[in-house]
Every structure is written in structure tokens, then in C-alpha cells.
Write a structure and sequence with these properties.
By secondary structure, the chain is an alpha/beta fold. The protein has 2 domains: 2-180, NAD(P)-binding Rossmann-like Domain (Rossmann fold, 3-Layer(aba) Sandwich), CATH 3.40.50.720; 189-283, N-(1-d-carboxylethyl)-l-norvaline Dehydrogenase, domain 2, CATH 1.10.1040. The chain is built from 12 helices and 8 strands. It has helices at 10-21, 33-52, 58-67, 91-104, 120-124, 160-172, 188-204, 210-220, 227-234, 236-250, 258-265, 278-283; strands at residues 2-6, 25-29, 68-71, 82-85, 110-113, 135-140, 149-154, 176-180. Strands 3-2-1-4-5-6-7-8 form an 8-stranded mixed beta sheet, sandwiched between helices. Strand 6 and strand 7 form a beta hairpin. Helix 1 (10-21) packs across helix 2 (33-52), helix 7 (188-204) packs across helix 10 and helix 9 (227-234) crosses helix 10 (236-250). The radius of gyration is 19 Å and the shape is globular. Mean pLDDT is 93; it is low at 279-289.
């Protein structure tokens, strides 16, 4: 079985890696050659760290990298059996990619989307009616190489056999899929961003500092990472984008806080010293680890 991944950013690069570690041949596509090169470098670094920590043997690293082929043209994915779309979280961008895949992929190829917020039935509209039963959401969590959870979301047209096959494949590569209804934000992001919005409001109101709220969530709620360290790890810009999508879908309860919008507009998105706190950056799990 041959897997294709479209988009070689932090998510797509690691999605390709976990499929390769699971024994699949993988074609990784991005239209930007520099992004493809960086993805291979990140994959190599991740595997090197895994070998150093005893997670993989050196032979596992070599075999996984040998299974990943970077490709510059999307039509090179035409013979794949499953293709994961992992491009920028924007409806028009994702629908354009899905439309291109629909045109070039062989009959029977399963298409999946890694969207974290956009309804799968809405994305499905970019596909020809005959392709829609073979399309399903498969939302991985960052960092993909370490997080086991995957949300599996069927559209109105997804065939039950498609969801079942994708769940089987995800389990084969060591993931823990859960089935979620097709709504904006699915399940986990609705839970998460309700917390993140309230955390930022607590800082706006002067109730507590980001550092103390991170400590409160880790030591009082048992979370492995605090909300501000998490926003620094995934970027405040992405958090704002997700909240804007869910605000459109659900109204006031997901309105992004003014402080978050102000910080993103000023470039304080989580890189270097431009996160919520220095300590939260140092405590955050880096996406490349």
C-alpha cells in the first residue's frame, strides 16, 4: 500500500514519518522545494533523537527514511492508495488541493484531510460525487510523532467501509483513532479552545500571570503542559485562526480574546522570545522533537 501526503510543513512532514515508521511507502509532496528539504531534515533529526533515546534502532531510522520519497509534482501521487491532505487551514486552499487530487488519483484511492476545524462535508464539496464516499477526515495532533490521538470524521457521503479502513490503518501505525461527528472544530478543539480563551481572559483581567496559570493547569489539573506553553508550541496565530472559525460557527462563546488578537497582530506568536513567557517557551514541547 502506497501513501501520499500533500503539504510538507510540521504536520505533513510528521504524518509522512509515522506512516513510514509503520512500514508504508510514502510520497511526500509540497510545491515548495525548500519546504520539502526542511521536512526531510526534520524527519532525520526526529529519528536521530529517537535512536539516541532508545525508541528506535539505527536500522529503523534508515528504513523509515528510505520509505519516504519527496515529490515536486502532485500528479506523482496518482498511484497512491491513500492520500492525506495536510496543507494550510483555509477552506479555499484545502478544496483546491482536494480537487486536484480528485482529478489525478486512481479509482479506489482514499482521500483524507488533516483539517482541525473545517467540516468534512464542506470540504467534500470540492470532490466529484463518485469520489465523496472515499473521503474522510483524519485529524492528527501535534507533534504527530508523539501524540497518539487521531479524530476520524465522516462526511454526509463517507462510506462506512472508508472510515473502517482508515481506522484500521491508523491503528497499524500505532495511533489511537476516535470517531467524532462532523461539526466545526470537531471535539478536541472545542474543549481545548474553550480553555485557552478563558486562560487569556484571566490574564486580561489581571487574575493571574501566564506562568502561574501554566503551573495551575499542570499541578492543579494534571495537564502535561499549561495553556500558554501550548499556545507557544503550536503558535498563537494558529490558535487565533481556529477560534475565528469556531466563532463563525458557534457565536460568542468562541470569540477570540482581544489580547490574543493584539499579540498576534504585533507578531507575538510564540517564536524565540515572542511567546507569552520565556518560561513557557522553555517548557513547551518543540514540534521538531
Amino acid at each position: 500500500m502506497k501513501i501520499g501526503v500533500v503539504g510538507a510543513g510540521l504536520m505533513g512532514g510528521e504524518i509522512a514519518l509515522v506512516f513510514a515508521l509503520g512500514g508504508f511507502e510514502v510520497l511526500l509532496h509540497d510545491r515548495d522545494a525548500a519546504v520539502l528539504r526542511r521536512a526531510i531534515d526534520r524527519q532525520t533529526a526526529l529519528l536521530d533523537k529517537g535512536v539516541a533515546r532508545g525508541m528506535y534502532a539505527a536500522s529503523d531510522k534508515d528504513e523509515a527514511l528510505a520509505r519516504i520519497t519527496p515529490v515536486a509534482a502532485i500528479d506523482q501521487l496518482s498511484e497512491c492508495d491513500l492520500v492525506s491532505e495536510a496543507v494550510f487551514e483555509a477552506l479555499d486552499v484545502k478544496q483546491a488541493v482536494l480537487g486536484a487530487l480528485d482529478a489525478i488519483c486512481k479509482p479506489g484511492c482514499i482521500l483524507t484531510s488533516n483539517t482541525s476545524t473545517l467540516p468534512i462535508s464542506t470540504l467534500s464539496a470540492a470532490l466529484a460525487p463518485a469520489r465523496r464516499p472515499a473521503f474522510v477526515g483524519a485529524h492528527f495532533f501535534s507533534p504527530v510523532s508523539r501524540m497518539a490521538l487521531v479524530e476520524v470524521i465522516s462526511s454526509f457521503d463517507t462510506a462506512p467501509a472508508t472510515s473502517a479502513r482508515v481506522i484500521e490503518i491508523l491503528q497499524r501505525i500505532g495511533k489511537a483513532p476516535i470517531v467524532v461527528k462532523d461539526v466545526a472544530g470537531f471535539a478536541v478543539n472545542r474543549l481545548l479552545h474553550a480553555m485557552l480563551i478563558e486562560a487569556v481572559k484571566l490574564v486580561e483581567e489581571g487574575v493571574a500571570t501566564p506562568e502561574d496559570l501554566d503551573t495551575a493547569c499542570r499541578l492543579g489539573l494534571g495537564h502535561p503542559i499549561g495553556p500558554f506553553a501550548l499556545m507557544d508550541a503550536v503558535s498563537s496565530g494558529l490558535c487565533l485562526q481556529v477560534q475565528q472559525i469556531m466563532h463563525d460557527a458557534y457565536g460568542e462563546r468562541f470569540r477570540p480574546p482581544a489580547l490574543l488578537k493584539q499579540r498576534v497582530a504585533a507578531g507575538f506568536v510564540g517564536a524565540g522570545r515572542r511567546g507569552w513567557t520565556r518560561s513557557s517557551i522553555e517548557g513547551a514541547p518543540k514540534a521538531e522533537q
